[in-house]
């Protein structure tokens, strides 16, 4: 049976900036669902008045290093950051 959860985006000052309501079958699956919101910052996951956990923001992906010049391959300058 699904339960109601909320994922709260936490601002730098610790104040909730926004919330997303969703349903999940368990606390573990709620944390997996809420993981998608970490692209925008830290996320607290709640089920009613019970805090399930805090998910830390995803780090910005770094551009990979260029291969050695010996290989003759060139590296694309495309960014790999998440949207």
Structure description:
With 83 residues, the protein is mainly beta. It has 1 helix and 4 strands; from the N terminus they run ββαββ. A hairpin with a 5-residue loop joins strand 1 (3-10) and strand 2. Residues 71-83 have low confidence and may be disordered.
Widest sheet, order of strands: 2-1-3-4
The termini sit apart by: 32 Å
Order of helices and strands: EEHEE
Work out the helix count: 1
Q: Estimate the mean pLDDT confidence.
A: 79
Entry keywords:
1 helix, disordered C terminus, four-stranded antiparallel beta sheet, 35% strand, globular, mainly beta, 83 residues
Short overview:
The protein contains 1 helix and 4 strands; from the N terminus they run E-E-H-E-E.
Task: Detail the topology: elements first, then pairings.
Layout: E1 3-10, E2 16-24, H1 27-34, E3 42-47, E4 50-55
Antiparallel strand pairs: 1-2, 1-3, 3-4
């Amino acid at each position: 049976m699904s339960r109601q959860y909320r994922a709260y985006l936490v601002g730098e000052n610790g104040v909730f900036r926004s919330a997303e309501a969703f349903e999940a079958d368990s606390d573990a699956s709620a944390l997996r669902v809420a993981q998608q919101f970490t692209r925008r910052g830290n996320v607290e996951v709640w089920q009613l008045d019970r805090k399930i956990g805090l998910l830390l923001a995803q780090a910005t992906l770094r551009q990979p290093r260029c291969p050695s010049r010996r290989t003759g391959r060139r590296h694309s300058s495309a960014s790999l950051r998440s949207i």
